[in-house]
Amino acid sequence: MSILQKIADIEAEMARTQKNKATSGHLGLLKAKLAKLRRELIEPKGGGGGAGEGFDVAKTGDARIGFVGFPSVGKSTLLSNLAGVYSEVAAYEFTTLTTVPGVIRYKGAKIQLLDLPGIIEGAKDGKGRGKQVIAVARTCSLIFIVLDVLKPLQHKRIIERELEGFGIRLNKEPPNIQFKKKDKGGLNLTSLVQQSELDTDLVKTILNEYKIHNADITLRYDATTEDLIDVIEGNRVYIPCIYLLNKIDQISIEELDIIYKIPHTVPISAHHKWNFDDLLEKMWDYLKLVRIYTKPKGQLPDYTSPVVLKEGKSSVEDFCNKLHRSIIREFKIALVWGSSVKHCPQRVGKEHILNDEDVVQIIKKV
Ligand SMILES: Nc1nc2c(ncn2[C@@H]2O[C@H](COP(=O)(O)OP(=O)(O)OP(=O)(O)O)[C@@H](O)[C@H]2O)c(=O)[nH]1
Ligand SMILES: [Mg+2]
């Protein structure tokens, strides 16, 4: 039986099974089996090249955004009109057959945009070029899911499922679950809050499926079976996502009002370049980039080309490493102006966390 057939069988069995306390163990087991099969699809046994091989383009700039969507929703039109790069646009489906990159500069940051071929339902299971497209999507710092406003939002669900099936988690934080495999001692499950789904039996069943018999697990919130499996699998990527509802030139103002209420969306018209300002603003928010201006001694800060870091990786040390590998060895202290410090300038060490638009002067050991 092929992996796809096995997956289909399990999905069918899950759909048949009623969800209640008595079946939760069985469902948990099925979910774990499903996750394992999906991993086999992504990383075929026996190694070999990754699924994205030959399809990926070199990373450039401070961040990378991938356009994912069904065929003919306007991804290439968006790339052409946003980045001024030519990518073939046509009324027929599957116009774009490979990754087409473009670059924009926004607020001093260089952002790489990737126009990807259209995907269809079943992409994650190897249909069409979907698998390669999703493999490239996994490498992005932000995903734009492009939807056609005239098509039902059901498309949104399908694309989300495709990406989820490939280990991508959209607009989600990594689960706050501590998981540590051990050599002996059995299973130690600690729940810091009341759990509505996971109990010792269920956790044991799931771990058994992974042949894990000794582990410390701490659940710091009301976790789901899926969250636990994500942590055990360990290869999930957590990527922010914006839904672009394209072709709003084809709907009424009243319809537009309703659409605006859906979270994480921006309505646009790629063809008419409508609402690009909103799109870029939101893109910037979701990228969570931190711009740092350098200030050479005795000179004004250079406000034209910031060093761009990512939120969560914006210490003075990260800043130094982005400038040059050798700098941290000669680092003594840094002077910082901006919202991350109380006094301006303030002397800080390499652990200090910088905020967006801070100005930094490095002082080297003599
Ligand atoms: N009315 C309207 N049509 C648009 C808009 N944006 C794109 N289109 C049209 O939609 C069709 C498909 O556009 P493409 O940009 O080729 O779509 P795509 O998503 O790149 O398609 P694939 O490469 O096949 O996946 C073309 O006929 C475009 O002119 C828009 O904002 N409004
Ligand atoms: Mg295209």
Strand content: 15-25%
The molecules bound to the chains, other than polymers, are: guanosine-5'-triphosphate, magnesium ion
Order of helices and strands: HHEHEEHEHEEEHEHEEHEHEEHHEEE
Uncertain runs? 46-54
Tell me the Rg in angstroms.
Answer: 24 Å
Distance between the termini: 68 Å
The CATH architecture designation of the largest domain is 3-Layer(aba) Sandwich
**What number is the mean pLDDT?**
90
Give the neighbour order of strands across the main sheet: 2-3-1-4-10-11
**SS-derived structural category:** alpha/beta
Q: In CATH terms, what is the fold-level topology of the largest domain?
A: Rossmann fold
The total strand number stands at 16
CATH class of the largest domain: Alpha Beta
**CATH homology-level superfamily of the largest domain:** P-loop containing nucleotide triphosphate hydrolases
Number of domains: 3
Which overall shape is indicated by the principal axes computed on the Cα atoms? Answer: globular
Number of helices: 11
Helix share, percent: 25-40%
Write the layout of secondary structure elements.
Layout: H1 3-16, H2 24-42, E1 63-69, H3 75-83, E2 100-106, E3 109-115, H4 130-137, E4 142-148, H5 154-165, E5 168-170, E6 177-181, E7 187-191, H6 200-209, E8 215-219, H7 225-233, E9 237-239, E10 241-246, H8 253-259, E11 265-267, H9 276-287, E12 289-294, E13 307-310, H10 316-323, H11 327-330, E14 331-337, E15 346-348, E16 358-364
Parallel strand pairs: 1-3, 1-4, 4-10, 5-9, 7-8, 10-11, 12-16
Antiparallel strand pairs: 2-3, 6-8, 12-13, 14-15, 14-16
The structure holds guanosine-5'-triphosphate and magnesium ion.
